[in-house]
Amino acid sequence: MRPSPLAEVHEELGATLTEFAGWQLPVRFTSDLQEHHAVRSAAGLFDLSHMSQFVLTGPQVAGALDRALTASHSTMTRGQAAYSLLLADDGGTLDDLIVYRLMDQQWVIIGNAANWVTVARELTARMPRSGAALDDLTASYSLIAIQGPASAAILSELDLGELATTMPYYSIATGRVPTPGGKIVALIARTGYTGEDGFELMVGAGQAVAVWRAIEQAGKDHGLVPAGLACRDTLRLEAGMPLYGHELTRETTPLEAGLGRFVALEKTPFVGSKALQDNPPRQRLIALAGQGRRAARAGYRVLIEGEERGFVTSGALSPTLGHPIALAYVDLPAPDQGTEVEIDVRGTLQPYTVVKRPFYRRPASS
Amino acid sequence: MSIPPDLFYTADHEWVVDPGGPIARVGVTAHAAGALGDVVFLDLPEVGSTVTAGSTCGEIESTKSVSDLFSPVSGTVEEVNTSALDAPELVNADPYGEGWLFTVRVSDPTPAGLLDAAAYAGLPDVGA
Description:
The complex is a heterodimer of chains A (366) and B (128).
Chain A: E1 2-3, H1 7-13, E2 16-20, E3 23-28, H2 32-41, E4 43-47, E5 52-57, H3 61-68, E6 81-87, E7 93-103, E8 106-111, H4 116-126, E9 133-136, E10 141-147, H5 151-157, H6 161-166, E11 172-179, E12 182-189, E13 198-204, H7 208-219, E14 224-227, H8 229-238, H9 273-278, E15 283-290, E16 301-304, E17 307-317, E18 324-331, E19 340-345, E20 348-355
Parallel strand pairs in A: 1-3, 4-14
Antiparallel strand pairs in A: 2-3, 4-10, 5-8, 5-9, 6-7, 7-8, 10-13, 11-12, 12-13, 15-18, 15-20, 16-17, 16-19, 17-18, 19-20
Helix pairs in contact in A: 2-8
Chain B: E1 8-9, E2 14-17, E3 23-28, H1 30-36, E4 39-43, E5 50-51, E6 56-62, E7 66-70, E8 75-80, H2 82-86, H3 90-93, E9 102-106, H4 117-121
Antiparallel strand pairs in B: 1-2, 2-3, 3-9, 4-6, 5-8, 6-7, 8-9
């Protein structure tokens, strides 16, 4: 199992660790719920060193990304970020990614830990032999995320206030994080997976501990707490964001997952585009809200008018909303918003209502 | 992880006090509470219902997962902890005290398969 570059910090903080995609990572530092609420009300600090990280460089990258991934990348401007998907020829999803354009000819791609090998292999295969160089930085770089409404204020404490006020959401810039040992260069992206404002910092693995400690110090008076993977999952679910292996799989297309706005069928053909155009979706991802405190979990059956029509992909008792929420795939035609359905929760049929996604949206002011 | 020496334990990470009766009290261990994460829902057996040692009698649910509850003893449910039903976080805060789950009027005063504190601490996944 691969230790995180931040393993000594986890130990010092008494984190509960878990194995995730071959990495040893903090599932929680103190309490899933406290960490969840801290991210919604102040800020949380996440170790995401397991995420796969790639740099692509060269004059041919822009065009090749358009043919390799679903979103339009050649039209991105410097400093822009875009959510995109890596598909197989049959339209099935191999991974979801964030693509950052650092410079005209330099790009960063961040993907899921579980798909590291697949993404590395496919990106290599989908880049031309010349004019596009791929570097896999997963093992040599660390990713640290600050998420929550206090994130910008915390960056300001780190003398990065100008960056925090000028960077739009879904952008990337280079910053210098002051630490007792000197300033550390980081790629700072205003992106995240929690539904809150926030920043993700890419730094060399050897500098991760110093950067983590500097952020912790800066966040001391802003309610910043270290946060684990358990709350990351409930946060992303409330925000209606898909998780690979649950809402996105080799057997599902991004159109079925409701991610059509990240699929640029009008651009140049890309891997999987023909399949998406030729084969109509067979299912649709819907959002469901329940009552009481008993959550539906992945794999539970969804019944509409007594008939089994689908299955839950993710479910939890929403810490922010106080009632159960779930995402589920259902056969077409999918039920409209407001439709009452049932989920078989370990033998008991629980009523759920089809609702709008996301379940939670951050207040506009932050 | 705390393992009080005066309780008995099961391999399913439950504790029981006075398993020989007449009234045994049951809860989950600090290890179980820690592994589950924040407990958000309890499904406890009804007062007056019959429970059998080693059989499922309810559920304990955290933000991350759900687990079956097993009764460590056989008998009739005497009382359930309504405070814990209303505030399941008591299970995390005080698993051996205010986070107790239910009591049983024991029908078989010689329950099998219980561990003492040292044996429980020696379980590989407890690793105290």
